Amino acid sequence: MVSFELSILDWIQTSLRSGFGDVFFPIITTFADEGIGWVLLCGILILIPKTKKLGGVMFLAIIIEVLACNIILKPLVARPRPFMLNSAVQLLIPAPEDYSFPSGHTAVSFAAASVLLFQKSKGWLPALLMAGLIAFSRLYLYVHFPTDVIAGAVIGIAAGALACRLWAFCEKRLSKKVQRR
Known about the structure:
Number of helices: 8
Distance between the termini: 59 Å
Mean pLDDT: 95
Number of domains: 1
């Protein structure tokens, strides 16, 4: 399976690599470095009274995603990154030092985008497009295998769905307590 995935990454390198992509994808991927871009978006949403709940749900989804990917799965699976298996590839970004599976950049991006979708926010489509670009950037930059990115997307969507359900459950419980008083 690893050789098949490396062949996909090698095909991206030989067929899709371009001067534009070599500048664009390192910039795009930095939006999700440590989840900073998405966390900043949460902060902005929380500061606006009309979108405060949306920002809170998104932040909860990011917390769930970080626990699932970075705390549990990455150390458990301990998969080396593709550039470690193919030293001929020249990285366009500093070499990540953690494990490959799953893609945290992809997971955090899909967690945020899925919350926007599930909460019926008008910003869901641009966020989903950004998440897709970030996911592809991880392949283009040769720092993740395709299955890392797919797993990251699935985990991110699941984290977004779980955050929406948890938030709704908590809101319901709190409103019942307020009604009893």
